[in-house]
């Protein structure tokens, strides 16, 4: 599936802070999507790149600028440009990932984490979908495209972050390894979380940051006042909650202090390693996520809906499909893995949903997605005997500016695990979370409606639930899905159809005149 290519592509957009009086500019960029031969772990292969770069290039612009990007696809895979933190209408399959950033007065460094496969990722996912099994795990994780010295034949491919003493650096952490959540830490250095998914948070001092697939986190790194006679590893390790096989390796880079002449050396000096949580440390993950709070002040107001027009209760989890006749399947008990929301596994249409919605031809989808499960059971306890899912292209239709509350309830069907859920076209506020089954009577009384963290991607706790609120003020067709690529491929997604508003700027723009026909 082409969406798996997204774990190999990261394109960063850097927005420089501009004075309010500065005139806006239209900035033009061209992305050529090409195959490029790359060698990692002593293996050479061709991968999909943007302008021949891995990770991809970044766009530099000032706040208020207009950005025009021309994408020319030279490869045999379909490519979609997905702009995460600005509301732009787009198709429902995020194949190319863009990340937005804002620049500040100090130096900034981007730390991105794609996975590396020695085999062809397209062949891996095709085999998994054909056999019904989980996909093979990656051969390495990378930091800015470099696996680091802990992997065979990779010592020279090590990311180095060079810093000066007595400085503050802003590190932008992007999890582009879309089957794995990550713990991130730098030896002997604390980090201050200041931004999540392009929304400011109250400064949070931590030693370890958790970043789920599709999330971004900005942290401040304050260096020592004097250059120590040492170097320090920065490391990523998976946070694994599922029962399947996963890549349990650790990728590292090196934090180097420059001396007075601007040079740094790793010869004959100590190298310190960070202390990372255990691979399954759910207690740390829950504590970290629960401490994040929106920076709620006059300059950064919180617009969490205090009243709700529509409430939804969505179960998110795994399931199964029967094995086709005359075929041997390698999923649970001879079935094929599937995934669903409210037991509905999403079927990809052959025609773009956005195009059908604009042309008022809704026969491609049904606007009857269930607001709650059709069958209630102990979601985090013993699962039902029947684990089969239904299939359909179904959506929830919302009038413009509807205030929405969604409770995302994890299930134990085929094993409980965390699900990083991502909503296109909107940010949401995480107003509540907990373990076990959501209690509709008691749990809402503990919702945080004052300073909840604002995100577009959030991990549903393993064996637990999470509540979000958002305002449907962006017309169009918007996908909500699990950001674990395997689960996405198995159907853990649904769509919201948001109708036009009354004002001209609240209406869906027409498709371009040169839109290709299928």
What does this structure look like?
- One of its GO terms (biological process) is lignin catabolic process.
- This protein is mostly beta strands.
- 6% of the residues lie in helices and 38% in strands.
- The chain folds into two domains: 2-291, Immunoglobulin-like, CATH 2.60.40.420; 310-506, Immunoglobulin-like (Sandwich).
- The strands form eight sheets. Strands 11, 13, 16, 18, 19 and 20 form a six-stranded mixed sheet that branches.
- The chain is globular, with a radius of gyration of 23 Å.
- The model is unreliable at 1-22 and 86-105 (pLDDT under 50).
Q: Specify the structural class.
A: mainly beta
Helix content: under 10%
Radius of gyration: 23 Å
Number of helices: 4
Strand residues, percent? 35-45%
CATH topology (level 3) name of the largest domain: Immunoglobulin-like
Contiguous low-pLDDT stretches (5 residues minimum) are 1-22, 86-105
List how many beta strands DSSP finds.
33
Largest sheet: 6 strands, mixed
Return the CATH class of the largest domain.
Answer: Mainly Beta
Q: What is the annotated CATH architecture of the largest domain?
A: Sandwich
CATH superfamily of the largest domain: Cupredoxins -  blue copper proteins
Overall tally of domains: 2
The end-to-end span amounts to: 19 Å
Protein name: Laccase
Enzyme class: oxidoreductase
Keywords: Apoplast, Copper, Lignin degradation, Metal-binding, Oxidoreductase, Repeat, Secreted, Signal
Main location: secreted
């Amino acid at each position: 599936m082409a969406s798996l290519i997204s774990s190999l592509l990261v394109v960063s957009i850097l927005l420089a802070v501009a004075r309010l009086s500065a005139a806006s500019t239209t900035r033009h960029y061209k992305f050529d999507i090409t195959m490029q031969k790359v060698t990692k772990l002593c293996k050479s292969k061709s991968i999909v790149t943007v302008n021949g770069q891995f990770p991809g290039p970044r766009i530099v612009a000032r706040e208020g600028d207009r950005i025009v990007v021309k994408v020319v696809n030279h490869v045999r895979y379909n490519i979609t440009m997905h702009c995460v933190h600005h509301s732009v209408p787009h198709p429902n399959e995020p194949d190319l990932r863009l990340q937005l950033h804002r620049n500040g007065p100090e130096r900034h460094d981007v730390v991105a984490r794609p996975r590396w496969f020695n085999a062809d990722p397209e062949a891996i996912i095709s085999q998994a979908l054909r056999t019904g099994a989980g996909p093979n795990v990656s051969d390495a994780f990378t930091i800015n495209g470099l696996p680091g010295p802990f992997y065979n034949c990779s010592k020279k491919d090590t990311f180095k972050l060079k810093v000066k003493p007595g400085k503050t650096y802003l590190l932008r952490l992007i999890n582009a390894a879309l089957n794995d959540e990550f713990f991130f830490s730098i030896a002997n250095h604390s980090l201050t979380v200041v931004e999540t998914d392009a929304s400011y948070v109250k400064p949070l001092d931590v030693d370890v940051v958790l970043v789920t697939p599709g999330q971004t986190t900005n942290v401040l790194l304050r260096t020592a006042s004097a250059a120590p006679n040492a170097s320090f590893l920065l490391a990523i390790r998976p946070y694994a909650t599922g029962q399947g096989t996963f890549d349990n390796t650790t990728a590292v880079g090196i934090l180097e202090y420059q001396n007075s002449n601007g040079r740094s050396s790793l010869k004959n000096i100590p190298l310190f390693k960070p202390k990372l949580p255990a691979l399954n440390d759910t207690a740390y993950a829950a504590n970290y996520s629960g401490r994040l709070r929106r920076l709620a002040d006059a300059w950064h107001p919180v617009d969490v809906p205090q009243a709700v027009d529509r409430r939804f209760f969505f179960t998110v989890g795994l399931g199964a499909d029967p094995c086709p006749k005359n075929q041997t399947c390698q999923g649970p008990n001879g079935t094929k893995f599937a995934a669903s929301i409210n037991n509905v596994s999403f079927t990809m249409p052959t025609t773009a949903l956005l195009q059908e919605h604009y042309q008022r031809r809704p026969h491609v989808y049904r606007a009857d997605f269930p607001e709650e499960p059709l069958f209630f059971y102990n979601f985090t306890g013993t699962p039902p005997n029947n684990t089969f899912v239904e299939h359909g292209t179904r959506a929830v239709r919302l009038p413009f500016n509807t205030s929405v509350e969604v409770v995302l309830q994890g299930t134990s069907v085929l094993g409980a695990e965390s699900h990083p859920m991502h909503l296109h076209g909107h940010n949401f506020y995480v107003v509540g979370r907990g373990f076990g089954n959501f209690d509709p009577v008691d749990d809402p009384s503990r919702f945080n409606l004052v300073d909840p963290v604002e995100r577009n991607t959030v991990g549903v706790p393993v064996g637990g639930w999470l509540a979000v609120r958002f305002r449907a003020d962006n017309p169009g067709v918007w996908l909500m899905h699990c950001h674990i690529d395997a689960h996405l491929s198995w159907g853990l997604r649904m769509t919201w159809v948001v109708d036009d508003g009354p004002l001209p700027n609240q209406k869906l723009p027409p498709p371009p005149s040169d839109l290709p026909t299928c």
